[in-house]
Amino acid sequence: MSTLIKNKRIVADPWQTLSPEESPAAAPLPEGDILFPLSVWQLRRNEIISSHKRIGLWLEPDTDLAPLEADLQYFVVIAINFPKFADGRGYSLARLLRERYHYEGEIRATGDVLHDQLFLMQRVGFDAWALKDGKDAAQALEAFATFKTPYQGAVDEPLPLFRRRTP
Amino acid sequence: MYRYDNYDFALVRERVAQFRDQLARWQSGALSDDEFRPLRLQNGLYVQRHAPMLRIAVPYAMLSSAQLRALAHVARTWDRGYGHFTTRHNMQFNWPRIEDCPDILDYLSQFEMHAIQTSGNCIRNVTTDQFAGIAPDELIDPRPLAEILRQWSTFHPEFAFLPRKFKIAISGTREDRALTWFHDVGLHLNLDAQGKPCFRVIVGGGLGRTPIRGEVVRESLPWEHILTYLEAILRVYNLHGRRDNLYKARIKILVQALGIEEFSRQVEAEWAHLKDGPGTLTQAEYDRVQAHFGAPAYRTLPAEDPDFLRHKAEDKAFARWVSRCVHPHRVQGYAAVTLSLKAPGQAPGDITAEQMEAAARLADAFSFGEARSSHEQNLILADVEQGRLHELWLAAKALNLATPSVGLLTDMICCPGGDFCDLANAKSIPIANAIQARFSDLDYLFDLGDLDLNISGCMNACGHHHVGHIGILGVDKNDAEFYQITLGGRQGSDARTGKVIGPSFSAAEVPDAVEKIINVYLAHRHQEETFLDTFDRIGPEPFKNKVYEDRAHGKAKSRNEEVTP
Lengths: 167, 565
Ligand code: SF4
Prior knowledge:
The complex is a heterodimer of chains A (167) and B (565). Chain A has helices at 38-51, 89-99, 118-123, 137-140; strands at residues 3-6, 9-12, 16-17, 34-37, 55-59, 75-82, 106-111, 128-129. Chain A has 167 residues and is an alpha/beta fold. Chain A has one domain (3-163): TIM Barrel, CATH 3.20.20. An 8-stranded mixed β-sheet of chain A has the order 2-1-8-7-6-5-4-3. In chain A, helix 1 links the parallel strand 4 and strand 5 (55-59). In chain B, 36% of the residues lie in helices and 17% in strands. In chain B, strands 16, 17, 18, 19, 20 and 21 form a 6-stranded mixed β-sheet that branches. In chain B, strands 1-2-5-4-13 form a 5-stranded antiparallel β-sheet. A 5-stranded antiparallel β-sheet of chain B has the order 3-14-15-12-11. The relative contact order of chain B is 0.09. With 565 residues, chain B is α+β, with helices and mostly antiparallel strands. The interface between A and B is large, with 39 and 43 residues. Iron/sulfur cluster binds next to loops of chain B.
């Protein structure tokens, strides 16, 4: 089992990601905690709901969230993939999931996820991180404390500093 | 000007610590070069041709004398004794050692300075008019809102990894002096029918490879909504801007692809969710920030100072300097002054540590301890008593800061180009110097009048060549340095890009070509006509015919050797 940073601690990760190629329309679905790619979910939604108690969804950063709104209730985990760490779309997706769609399950960052993204990612609603292979998770935990009082409101603190500033 | 409180100080100090740690992890190999690159760029650190380059932010152009002295200290201690003002108000140091950068930033943080987001694919330093707060034609001082934007954009959690860089310019005057039509977002502060501040929001402008004049996405946005509205624009851009092609990644390409109506529809749909949320500005916050920009202790002065008038009448050199380097002020008896960084033979925008310290002394003695950097790469003292202009002129002259050429041909905007910049196709500073040497006669330059000549070393257009009346762009032709010339570009409310006149020139040919262009103007101008007036009246053909007269077939020949803009 690989490890995960969750709620600012290093934990074992029970979730497996299913690649779309592994799941042609008729093959049996694997058991256990599975992150289903959106394409598989769209194809086999009812089957997944009846066979899995805990369901995870795996999203690419170009996903349009609006059509998924009604389905969000089924997911315990939503993983957002970062194909490159400089691809910032996932930050907006996480924020939309929390602020617009009021999704309360785990939002995890996967893919090219590195130490220096963690601080900003926690601000926009991520609460779990599957760091890129070979990166030092223990050291990465330090990133959460990078800035004490940022200026903007976001998911972690909805009020911008200008509404809280004391002289 | 704005002074940091404990929150502001804490953030820049935490940034220094973060950067020190990032650098250490890179040095230890924990971060690869590719992983470190965007992190150092977001902190203004480039790795350039000869050495790293560190770009320090000068938010909306304001510098205190203490900050100027701090920059001088950096130049002397960690660099080679000089710095360079860019066209976005910032200061670049060309020779620091990478390992010294955390110490440099630590030192600057004491003086409320930083390098945050001076590069990288994030929201960059907000720029404005160098005469903000004192211009007679100003409707609203843009600086309080510029500072509010600075804070909002600093470490914005959602928009740190945009498809490409994002530049915002804000102007509060009738005549645009901040190039707002050519920014990712341009903001015009204005008063609505009820006398309340509001913004005209322009989006999708830009120079660079594809110069495009921005379009109005909202004609009148009440000021308190500016942050939420910008977040809506940035979210649409962040999610839908192109990430597959570096050259098509700016917001202007998205706006062009969608069309302004559809882009605006998407922004409004996004904004509907954000409007009136906690990001809505409060009057209390505006007042808190605005209090930092109150008028200094101006004295009551006569409109015309007799000593000033006498000096002007008696001393032609002083009168000349006044005509080019002294600018109107909204307070009677005061003036703004440009300290020129365009002395002949000097790289435009370069300033030595001694000059920085001297400028700090002049700011203390003549202008309430404040200075500004202009996007034309000069320094400004904004609040000088008319009666002391002569004294200031004498002092500035002794420091080589009184070249009376502001707005003239030799007041060139010029990027660092191939002497320093890794991205350059060609050198730009030697071209600037060669043109300065060719046009060294002041009487002649004054006779030519207003003329903007801008030089960029490559398509990135840091030297704003597109909006120069004469623009010069370095291009690469079979591994040799060549220069393409454009005519008719301009800044201001009528800002537009110039048109390429024909095949490019070698470095040695450029001064001749410029001289021919000037001669066509002189031959055709009607009385009192500026270069642009004449150009607009007669069009590019007479210029082309003259410039290319010696080339094969007499006229502009095949265009296939050009890089199309
Ligand atoms: S225009 Fe090109 S050469 Fe000049 S500074 Fe910008 S990137 Fe460098």
